[in-house]
Amino acid sequence: MSPCVDGTVAPDHELRRWFHANSLQWETFVGMYRAQLRQHTAWQPLVALLRQGQSITLLYGSRDRERNHAIVLRDFLIEQVTLSERG
Q1: Is the pLDDT of residue 87 over 90?
Q2: Using H for helix, E for strand and C for coil, what is the string for the chain?
Q3: Which PANTHER family match (predicted)?
Q4: What is the mean pLDDT of residues 24-50?
Q5: What are phi and psi of 63, to 5 degrees?
Q6: What is the pTM of this model?
Q7: Which residues, at least 6 apart from 68, have a Cβ–Cβ distance to it below 8 Å?
Q8: Separation CA 68–CA 53 (nearest Å)
Q9: Is the separation of the CB atoms in 56 and 50 below 8 Å?
Q10: 23: which residues sit within 8 A by CB, 6+ positions away?
């Protein structure tokens, strides 16, 4: 199953609930979500697609277009592509 479809790259339920209740703590959310991403490998197929020059679509359910998990995931994936190209 595609990582985009099964949601394994999304923040876990507990972190989503925490952020919903603490939306002003954006930087804390970013750090916590990035820590979750580093603990798993579900994002690796997305990096492989990006390295091949393919586009991916990241979905989110937040009303906030600038502070949502897709923004954090996008930045994380870009960093991973850059790191993999360096060596």
Answers
A1: no
A2: CCHHHHCCCCCCHHHHHHHHHCCCCHHHHHHHHHHHHHHCCCCHHHHHHHHCCCCCCCCCCCCCCCCCHHHHHHHHHHHHHHHHHHC
A3: CYTOPLASMIC PROTEIN, CYTOPLASMIC PROTEIN-RELATED
A4: 96
A5: -80, -20
A6: 0.88
A7: 60, 61, 62
A8: 24
A9: yes
A10: 64, 67
**Which two tokens mark 3?**
């990582």
Which residue type is seen at 66? E
| Cβ burial, residue 49 (10 Å; 0-12/13-18/19+) | middle
Q: Using one digit for the tens of pLDDT, what is the confidence trace for 44-69?
A: 999 999 999 999 999 998 999 999 99
* Phi, psi for residue 13 in degrees, rounded to 5: -55, -45
Q: How far apart are CA 26 and CA 1, in angstroms?
A: 30
